[in-house]
Amino acid sequence: MGVRIEFDPLGEKTIPNDVYFGIQTFRAIENFPVSGLKASPYFIKAYVLVKKASALANLQVGWLDKKICDIIVQACDEILAGKFTDQFVVDVFQAGAGTSFNMNTNEVLANRGLEILGKQKGDYKYVNPNDHVNMAQSTNDTYPTALHVSLLMALQTLLKELDELSEAFIDLGKKYSHVLKSGRTHLQDAVPITIGQEFTAYGAAIANATAELRRRQENLYSVALGGTATGTGANSHPKYKQLAVTELAKLTGYPLKPATDNFEALQSHRRAQTVSSALKELSLELIRIANDLRLLASGPTTGINEITLPAVQPGSSIMPGKVNPVMAECLNMVAYQVVGCDEAVSLAVQAGQLELNVMTPVIAYNMLFSIQILTNYIPTFIEKCVKGITVNEKRCEQYLEKNPSLATFLAPKIGYMEAAKIAKQAQAENRTVKESAIEKGSLSKEEIEKIFSRKNLINEQ
To answer: What pTM value is reported for the model?
Structure first.
């Protein structure tokens, strides 16, 4: 009573009767006990949307019976509403190309369809995973299509969070635009900037990386659906490809279009790689910014200590009172992971052979995981770090006063070599450049005051 027997070309299997997946999914469970990681909810939703669009297209060309189409569509809608997602059990590391996951999806939809019909699960003569749910499709075109759609869905929230992060830094820059400080190049003292300019530059860097990510997501609008096994569209109606992609575009709200060359769409995952690369490029900027924040907050007595990061937890199990830049540290770790994921994606992208790249599952996992961890953490980083940053204005002023690079502004009046002598003298005597310049007497006090005015120091217009 608690089991059913299912058959495939390799034989038969006993399947628990309460599950909606079938024999091919069961084989995948046995074959790939790798990570325990399952498909992203975005990927499940995207794949089900592909199945729904395909059913509607096959109905329009007269290949799929309306009753069966309606049942498949109903089953799809139930999963899209959040039901039966626990039935997608194939490990993310699985058979090449994603055949196991495709069949997992086909079997769940078929068995739910049978249940809607009042039939027993596994009685596939009424609703069949291959003949009906997978009609005019192959793993080879549906999996890459679901990859593109799932990435588009996942990216939208991330893009909004990145906009918020950029704005948070720009707001911080405006708040502290009045604070002059020493610039630093080569980690050595350089001519002044405002600390507000440092912060707004971080905001601009994130905004630019986000804009590039937005541009590159347009590469995902081209989808492989309709190419079936090798790009020829074998076992599909001549009108199916356009109809299926049109339906999928309606269902997703994205301006999807059939790939110009189906063969290229199955062979190459360059389009996905451009997005993965953009995620890596963004992460490199995040790493740089996080490291800057850690440097600027270093101390409090033996570091730079120009800013204070919010204290969110004790920093040590042994040193009382220690507070660490943990939010920036975590951002580093998240971004390092994204860089690593991109390396895995890159290796998978170059691994395509002849008519197919079979490494699509590892591309999907790594890209969706990268988007997930960035999306999860960035709002917390904004609230618990960026918005709570304060500037130690007195420390900034102290560093600036003793900065020997201020002699740069004397050079147009007295020459590079004379300015260098004043800088060297100021350092040797532990005095300010301004004091040494006044003592030198080469310029009047009024001229020196003008040279060291805020307007001149930061070329303020």
So the answer is: 0.96
